[in-house]
Amino acid sequence: MAVANGGSITFTTPGTARQALLAGVQIADVQATATITVPTLPTAGSGVYFGLQARSDGKRYYQSTVRVTPTGSVYLGTARIDGSTTNQKKLSKEALVASGLQPGQSLQMDLRTRSSTTVTVASRAWVVGAAKPSWQRIATDASAERLQSGGIGVWSYLSSAAAPLGLGISALSAAPVTSSSANPEPEPTTPVPAPTEPTDPVETPVPEPTTPATPTTPTAPATPTTPTTPTGPDTQVPSSGRGSAAVGATSYAIPKGALYVTAGNGTGGSGSLASPYTSLTHAVAKAPNGSTLVLRAGTYRESVVLASSKQLTIQSYPKEAVWLDGSDRVTGWNKSSTGWAVTGWNTGFDTSPTFTKGASDGSAEAIKFINPAYPLAAYPDQVWVDGVAQQQVASERAVGTGTFFVDRAGKRLILGTDPAGKTVTASKLQTALAVKSVGSVVRGLGVRNYGNSVYQMGAITAQNDAITFENLVVQDNATIGMYAWGTGVTFANITATGNGMMGGGANSADKFTLKNSVISGNNVQNFNRMPVSGGFKITRSRTVAFTDNDFQKNTTVGLWLDESVYNGKVSGNRSIGNGATGIILEISDTFSVTNNVIASNGRYGLWIGNTGNVQVWNNTITGNSMAALQLTQDKRRQTNVNSAGHDRRQPLPDMTVPWIIKNVTVSNNVISGAGGGCLVCVEDQSKEFTAEQMKLTLNGNVYQRASANAPSLAVRWGQGAATAKSFATVAAFTKATGQERRSVLVEGTAVTTTGYQLTPAALAQSALVVVAVPSSIAGLLGLQAGIAPARAGSLLSP
Hints:
This protein is mainly beta. It holds the Pfam family Beta_helix.
C-alpha cells in the first residue's frame, strides 16, 4: 500500500530533529520503503540523518537510520527507540554502505520487521540506480521491551555543526510481510573475550548505549549479502615502484648447487635441472640445510611446512610464473533440486571468526568479528566458475545463479550456476607455506585461493626469526593473506589484495619491517572493523617500521598499530580510500609518523588513541570523512590488572607503553577536510587529562576547510572533566593557547591537487610557516637537522 508520495523536510536550524507518524497504517510484520533525495551535502559535523520507523506509536518504535556525511559517505544502523532518541537500544552498529554520494542523488532504504516472540529487524540502503543489495543490517530483539505492532513513521536530524539544508522524499510505502516472505536471521553468537578498539567519537543525536545487546537465541546462518568492493572513493594513487613484480617477472640469480622443483604431487626426481623434484613438499623434505630451491613454472597445489631445523631459500626460476594455489578443479556434477551437486565433499574447514579454533564470536558489539549482514564471512569455502568468485549461502534452498552451498552433513557441494562447459574450481587446501626456520627466504611467487580459517593466521606465515618474504603476490585467500611472528622478519615488495579478512598482520614480531608493498582491496568478506580487519594490523611488537607502502581501498582500516607496539616508524606511506580510518596508533607508544599521505578515508585520517611520544611531521591528511587528526584518551591503562592488549613478554605493568597520550608533536602537516566537527580533535573520555597536561605541541601546519562551517571548528581542545575548548579558527586557538604561532588556515580554496600535492598558491603559503625539523626526524625526510623543508605536507612525488 502506498502511504505517501512527495514532500520534503527542511532544516532551518541545525541541531534539531523532525518526526512524523503516518496515520492509518498499523502493521506488525511490514516492509517499509522510502526514497530520499539530498539536494546538497551537509557542510560539517557528523552529517544529516534520515530514519524509517516501524511498529511506532509515536514514542516507541524500531528505526533504521541512514547518515550522510559531508564527504558523501552513507552509513546505516538500526535501533529500538524508547520514548525519545536520547533513550535508544542500538540493535546493530553503523555500517558504511555507500560512498561518494553526490548532491542531488537519491537513496532508497528498506526496513522490515517480522515476528513477535523474537522480532527480526532488517534494513538496507543504496544509491538509486545501483543494484539493490541484500539486507545489510540484521538484528533481533528478544527482550521484554520488544515492540509488537504499530505504525510507519519517519524521522530526521541535521548535525548542529552543519548549515541549513533540505531533504526530499519522493516515495514512501509499506506492505505487509506474509508467511512466505524471506526472513533474514542473524548469525548465532556466544560471548568470548577479545581485544577491542575503543569507541571513537562521532557527533550523534543520541548517546551510545552502555550495556551490550541481549544475546539472541542461536539460529541458522542467514543467506549472506554479496561482499562489497572496498568502500573508499574512486581516487587512488598509482603504486609505481611499490608492490610485487608480476608473477613470472622476477629474475633472481641461481646459485651454484641450487636444486630444482617442478609442479606435481610426487616424490620423484633428484633435484637437478634435468630431473627436478616433482613437488615442493618433496623438495623441502630432501633438500639439505642452506639449499636454494628453484621452482619451475607451474601451479603448485600443495600445503607445505618448512620445519625449524632447515633454512632454505625458495624462489622462482627467472621469468617463470610460479603459483602456490589452494584450489583445484571440481568435476562430476549432477543436477539437484536447486542446482548442481557433487558428492564426497568433505573439506571440514573450521568456521570460527576468532583467533581460537572452534570458538564462537563475541557477544558485545565491540568484540564481534562478524557483521550480521555478512554472517558467513568466516566460512573459508571458496568457489569460482570460469574464474569468477561465487557467493556462499547458508542453505540449499537459497542456492541460485552465482552462489553455492556446502552441505557438510551430506558431504555435498551445491552450485547454483550450470557448470556445463565451464571450469569450476574450489578451495581444497587451507595454508600454502608455513616457514618455521630462522633466516629462510621466499621470493618471486604467487599465493592464491587458499581456504584458510581465521585461527590459522595466514595463507603464508613467517613463524621464526630473520625470515624474508619478497616479491610475493598474495591474493584471494579466504581470511588473512600473510602473517608474521618472530624477530627481524621482513616483508618487502608484497602485493596483498582481495583477501577475505585482512591483507596481512604480525604479532610478537620485534624488528618487523613492511616496505615497498601494496596492501589493497582486502576484507572482501566484510568482517567488522573491530576488533580487527582491513589492510594490515600489527600488535605487541617492538621496533617496527612501515616504509613506502600503499594501503588503499581496503574495506575497513588501512594500517593499524595496536596493543603495546613500541618504537615504530611509519614513513612514506599512502593510506588512501579505505572504508574506515587511514592509520591508527592505539594503546602503544613512541612513534614517528612522517611523510605520509592519509586521504579520502571513510572515517578519520590519523587516529591516535592512548598513545604517547608521537612525532607527526610533514604528512598530508585530507579529504577524510571525519576529523583529519583525532587524539582520544580513554580509561584503559597499562596498570589495569590483566590488561587486554598487554605484551605478555613484558612485565606487567610495562610502563614503556603506559597507554597515555603525552608528548605529541604535530608540525609541517597539511590538515584538511570538511567532515567531522573539527580538523584537529583532542579529548579525554576518562575525564582525567587536559590537552595541556597531555603536552601536545602544534606548530607550522597548513589548515584547510571547505568553508567556515565545514567543519565549524578548527580545533577542539579537551579539558579533562571540564567542557572542551572549541576554536572556530586557528588564530583563536593560537591566541588562547600559544599553539600554532606559525600556521595558516585556508577556507574554501583547495590546497592540494587530485594527486595530493600542494597547489602553487598553497606551496607559497606553506613555505612561510613551516618549521625546522629535529635530528630525529630529518633523516626520515631526507633533510638536514635544523632546516625547514620547502613545503608542508608529504614530500612524496605524485
